[in-house]
Records
---
Amino acid sequence: MKNFDRYKKIRSLALKKTKEKIKISYANEEFVLMQAINAYNEISKSYNLFFERISEWFGLYFPDIELSSINQLNLFFEGFENKEKLEIDDFYKIYEDKSKATLIYQKYLNSSGRELNESEKKLIMMFLKYIKNSNETLKNFDEYLKKTSNKLMPNTTYLTDEKIAAELLNKAGSLEKLSIMPASTIQLLGAEKALFKHIKFGSKPPKYGILFKLPALTNAKRTIRGKIARLYAAKISIGLRGDVISKRFIAEELKNSIEKTMQKIKNKQ
Amino acid sequence: MKNFDRYKKIRSLALKKTKEKIKISYANEEFVLMQAINAYNEISKSYNLFFERISEWFGLYFPDIELSSINQLNLFFEGFENKEKLEIDDFYKIYEDKSKATLIYQKYLNSSGRELNESEKKLIMMFLKYIKNSNETLKNFDEYLKKTSNKLMPNTTYLTDEKIAAELLNKAGSLEKLSIMPASTIQLLGAEKALFKHIKFGSKPPKYGILFKLPALTNAKRTIRGKIARLYAAKISIGLRGDVISKRFIAEELKNSIEKTMQKIKNKQ
């Protein structure tokens, strides 16, 4: 019986210790940042889907007008709501090109589409409101991502942006893991599928993963993209050590050095 | 010059005619119903994704509590918002099983998870609000689908339900096309991929597409599912002619006949 009591005591102690460990391991905000970037990506994807859907739906009422922004969507839906027709001035406000505004206004007046009944009007207005809400939600996430990426990974965020930094973190799983990764791994984070395809089937090796979202890479010529990715990955890996280990802001120097080397790469072409 | 004027006149006449035709072809509400069922499916998918995301996120704060409904989510988030701790009575309201409620309440008190800071609290509360809004939006769509499916396809909706009816319509492209489809085509609507796989590679032929969502099919034994799908498809195709061509409500008789045959199928097993 005495033995049993002792085991019980040990067990509860062990449980307590483990719980404390879990608490410490979740204490860092990086886990929230990872959830936030994932949620952001999911909402963003859904938002695009919803926008496409409402544009197609809108085509029932105005088959010859194409929507390309939420402002245009808003304009026409105001026209649904307030029964008086829209004025040409309303179109000037949304379409920069005056002649285009006039054209669209003409199309609006002579619509060959369907007339809405009350219950579908209610539904589509509600759907529009939901889409706007999705857009608002994205903005809120954007704000949080900016703030938190800059707080937790100031160097990496300075060299890339808040979303790329958060995605790198998300792929790595924790700041600690990310900070000890070699530059070559950072360069290929997010390109795992292509990498294993290369190893298994001998297809071309990937040159970049998440880093492809960098404007410096997207806008560069195909032939030098690999070099630029390598350059950025090298500097990011140094920046990450500043973020996590030495807690120093060294991104400005790193950025300067990136710009110098970029010039060299471009001159060599 | 006279010739040119004549062509111009003919052209504007032809344009006018075409516009009228477009207007007539969009006049029927069935096109709105198709947009609505597509939007419903997209929002529903996103909603599930968001719910999974927030459940995982919630795990940072309460790693040992699993969420399974939006009511539970609500309960804990109220706890985040009003700083006083939740009471055991609050748990009794949400969890039917009293002993389970007590267990979860204990876990809630001794959480081993992370404490929220202000900015992440703001973000996650906003995300919860957005998820609730998604749920509300789904309910609004549900209402519209019920109303409109019953209006446009009373027989089909009676035999299946508002979503299955709308999806059949969506797959067919228009009520007219759907109403002249043979029963065998209706049976396989939504199983196109499997059907072409069967034709091209000789895999097993599919037995049902959208109709698989019928509870009568989902709950039946594997061996008789094909028979039930054929039975339903046959009666739906008759019902559709009532919906579109003769405009008569004949679904009750059809339903009776379905039930009789179902009994026979089950007895034969």
---
Amino acid sequence: MQETIWPPEIHTIVQSREFLKLRDTMRNWSPSGIADLMGQLPAEERVIVFRLLPRKLAAEVFEYLPIEDQEQLLKTMAKEEVAVILNNMAPDDRTALLDELPARATQQMLALLSPAERTIAVSLLGYPDGSIGRLMTPDYVRVRPEWTVEQVTEHIRRHGRDSETLSLLYVIDDEGVLIDDIRIRKVLLAPPLTRIAELLDHRFVALKATDDQETAIGVFRNEDRYALPVTDSAGVLIGIVTIDDVLDVAEEEATEDIHKIGGTEALDEPYMDTPLHRMVKKRATWLSVLFLGEMLTATAMGYFEEEIRRAVVLALFVPLIISSGGNSGSQASTLVIRALALGEITLADWWRVARREFFSGLALGTILGLIGFLRIAVWSSFSDVYGAHWFPVGLTVGLALLGVVLWGALAGCTLPFVMSKLGFDPAASSAPFVATLVDVSGLVMYFTIAAVLLSGTLL
Amino acid sequence: MQETIWPPEIHTIVQSREFLKLRDTMRNWSPSGIADLMGQLPAEERVIVFRLLPRKLAAEVFEYLPIEDQEQLLKTMAKEEVAVILNNMAPDDRTALLDELPARATQQMLALLSPAERTIAVSLLGYPDGSIGRLMTPDYVRVRPEWTVEQVTEHIRRHGRDSETLSLLYVIDDEGVLIDDIRIRKVLLAPPLTRIAELLDHRFVALKATDDQETAIGVFRNEDRYALPVTDSAGVLIGIVTIDDVLDVAEEEATEDIHKIGGTEALDEPYMDTPLHRMVKKRATWLSVLFLGEMLTATAMGYFEEEIRRAVVLALFVPLIISSGGNSGSQASTLVIRALALGEITLADWWRVARREFFSGLALGTILGLIGFLRIAVWSSFSDVYGAHWFPVGLTVGLALLGVVLWGALAGCTLPFVMSKLGFDPAASSAPFVATLVDVSGLVMYFTIAAVLLSGTLL
């Protein structure tokens, strides 16, 4: 178990320049542990600590650092040091770093790579942002079907040192087309002279380099593999994707969706690390758009000003009614957004979803409508707050609630489908967005019902 | 690449009783592909297809089926068949199935297991729901530090057949205490007579069996491992957890949080598979609670009935103002809920978060307040809709917006901390919950500002 030394102590060691002691202390730590510690140190001490690490450990620690810290460290290093670090990084982590740097810096970094590593880096950078190609690593073991188990073992001993995963081998033909993947255990357990071709079952699942990273999450959930091969359109093996990168993607996608559902642009950075002005900008956009939409409520209510003047009691229930519609819509849209993201439903399922939401909305609307009516009935038997005409008022509120909750469920479940059809992220049909939509129409519904039911009495 | 035959064709084959053809067709499919197909068939055909599979393939396919389908298939099988399937399942998948069955059925199933498998199953079922213990599999390779590379290779050849992952070996001492984990590649690449002890670096990260599954997500994100060892409180190795199970946990946790943020209880099942009555029940609870809270808005507005009667124009802006507060609160609470879930912030950070939200809320409130004031000013220069006193009305609306948006941000960021402190899931401080809270206080704020600014003119 790794020994824990808390930052203040490290701080003291750094301050008192006991560098040898520090180096000894860190030698037995895991790279992720050292990266963790560096994250808690001020920038200058971070550089000192990093400089003390043996070269190989430094390269490992570097991969665990957040991209901003990587950038900052690169600036303090000599060219030769940068070259060592970059050439030793896992290609997928390096792609993520190069992608973040300004174009000029990326070019400089690429120039520092060995010809082989440069070819790898450039090809990975060629895939679109968010595509599976960007997650690929070209470090894996390729074998030929005609090789024997003995030859494969020897091949691994010579070439397997850098490969990200050795639990799977990939079998290719003369053209580089992927024929099968095979677990290394199957090879280890077979007699040495068995040919690989005899061990194959020709059952494998491959990802496409240009596909969206989100699709990889679903495939990994279905398949019991730690790594999946990636092919181009001709079926040629061009890399592998490992499940740890997909776990990161899954967490990021969920974070993005959650931010959008909350009615803000996705932050793309940890909450605390997002500069205040950038966070305000990301939130202000949506907040202003929603505000402009919500202005229609003032316009809508303006049309019914005369009704409100004559029956002020109607105004009292406005917040209750529109918020109920918004809440019902928020439930429906959130459930549908997540079901779409998980692939539980597809665009073709709209009709089935709408039918479910119709019955749910009807049931929920009836429940709230009844509670609303009863509240007015009970209150009126004790006090005079709702006047002599409490019965038609109660009926108006009850029916409006039924209508608005049902409408909220239908609008809420439909909006994610519409967004998706229009090419937007369904998660953008956030709770606040649906609420705004339902608010305006809910008001019109409420006052229209009131005009019918109260005409002759209050209106 | 696997051949695709669409269900209608399979349906025809099943209907025409061409069982041999079907068996031949499926022989080359992956277990997950067959499970996928079975999911699209009606229940009776699903049973027929499953019966046609060779015994070993059937056991593999079984693990990929959803638990409800597993239950249903078990009912159609003879005891001996059930025993074969259960004894061949991966212990973690089996735990998930046994856990879903009624207690009586679980007992019957346990009786069908071999003594060794029964011991494993009972011990896994002993860990609390949602703990890492439930994800464990006891199939992994344990080695001793004094063994040579040659001995380890021989040991794997003999005992490694069932182990979930062979990319890592676990080194234990006489008492079973975990000393280190070691990548198999390191062993394969070493000379045959090297002792394992020479290859160890004594750097490893282990999970605790009783810890929450959520903690495993964070650890796997930090460590570059496909599997992590699980120890008891004495450090004794009792199992391993593989990253594919953690990917499932991460997706489920995100789904739960998203559902709660949308203002509903987590469904715990795919949207389409949730029976309608259960979905209505899960949504009705929160919707009714929010409705009862929102009723306070009617009470609050009742206090200002006289003001509304005198200045109906005030009522027109009620939806605009309360929804802006709700949207701002929804943004803040969602960002904080996700940051807490990812471990980016902890309970101790409330003060830092609140300070950020204070400045964000101030900026956002100023923006919306200005837009609101300008809209009233511009409208008033063209029409007479806001009357002669448009200036104090505009000022009231603008200031109320500033106050309500700021208050929304502060309340929204605080509520998740409060929920967490009280022992609830922070995600329960949903967008609708925060909105309800802010609605009531926002109304009081708005009418109080109006009473001050409009006294002597409109009021």
